Amino acid sequence: MQGIVDVTGEVILAIIPILIFFIFFQLRYLKLPSFEVTKVLVGLLITAIGMILFLYGVYNGFYPVGFEIGEFLGSIEQMWILIPIGFVLGFLTAFAEPAVRVLCYQVERSSSGYIRAKLMLYTLSLGVAVFVAIGMAKIVYGIPFLYIITPGYVLALVLLWLSDKDFIGIAFDAGGVATGPMAVSFLMSMLVGMASSHSERDAVVDGFGIVALVALAPIIFIMLLGVYVKYKRR
Questions:
Q1: 82 plus 59 within the same structural domain
Q2: CA 173 to CA 182: how far, in whole Å?
Q3: Is 66 helix (H, G, I), strand (E, B) or coil?
Q4: In whole angstroms, what is the distance from residue 234 CA to residue 229 CA?
Q5: Which of 6, 7, 36, 54 lies at a C-alpha separation of 20 to 30 Å from 13?
Q6: 3-state secondary structure of 210
Q7: CB 37, CB 62: distance < 8 Å
C-alpha cells in the first residue's frame, strides 16, 4: 500500500491549491449557491480519486509493461518493423490521451464549431504517430537526436509566419497536452527498454528524447493545418 499512499499525497498536494483558490473566490467574489459549491467539491473529489487510481496504475502497470515490451521489441532481428509499430502506437497513445480530447473540445467550443474537435484530434494524433515513428527510426539507425530536433524547430519557426494566426496558440498548447501520462509513461519507458536491450545502443543517449518529439509533433501538424485553412480562406 506504500505506493498508493505516496500517490495520494502527491494528488492532495496538487488539488489543495486549486481548492484554496476556489474557496477564496467563492467567499470574495463568486457567491455561488450552496448546490453549485457542492457540485464543484464533488467534482474535485472525483477528480482526485481518478488521478490517484490512474497514477497508481501508471507506476505499477504502464511503466513496467512498457519497459518489458521495449526490451522484447529491441531483440527483434528485423529492426525496421519497429518504425510502423511506433507509428501505430503513437497514434493510439495520442488518440487515447484525456488532455488531448479536452483541448480539442475546448477548441471547437471556443471557435463556435469552426474548428472541429474530430479534425483537431485526428491531426494531432497523426502528428504524434509520425514523430514516434521518427523516434523509432532514431534508435534503429542510430540517428543523432540533434539531426531530428533542430530541423523540427526550424520548421516550426517557419510555420509561425505561414500559418493562420488562430492556430498558432492552439498548436503550442497542443504540444503540451500531447505529452501527457500516456505518452510519458508508456512510450518513453518502451523506448528506454528498446535501447537498453540493444547491444549497440545506449539507454540514456538513445532511449530519451521521445517526449520532446511528441511535444513538437502537434506544433508542426496543427500549424500545417493552419496553413491549409489560411490558403482556403484566400
A1: no
A2: 17
A3: helix
A4: 9
A5: 36
A6: helix
A7: no
Q: 209-218 pLDDT, tens per residue?
A: 888 999 999 9
Domain final residue, candidates 72, 101, 133: 72
120 and 160 co-located in one domain = yes
Nearest to 129 by CA among 87, 73, 97, 160: 87
Domain boundary among 10, 44, 72: 72
Question: What's CA 115's distance to the chain center, in Å?
Answer: 20
The average confidence (pLDDT) of the chain is 90
| d(C-alpha 127, C-alpha 224), whole Å | 10
Q: Cβ of 221: how many Cβ atoms within 10 Å? A: 23
DSSP string, 74-90: HT-S-GGGHHHHHHHHH
Task: Kindly state the average pLDDT of the residues 217-228.
Answer: 95
82 in Cβ contact with 136 (< 8 Å): yes
Domain that holds residue 55: 1-72
- Evaluate if residue 70 carries a pLDDT over 70: yes
In one letter, which amino acid is 38?
Answer: T
Q: Comparing C-alpha atoms, which of 134, 130, 110 is closest to residue 122?
A: 130
Backbone angles phi, psi at 52, to 5 degrees: -65, -50
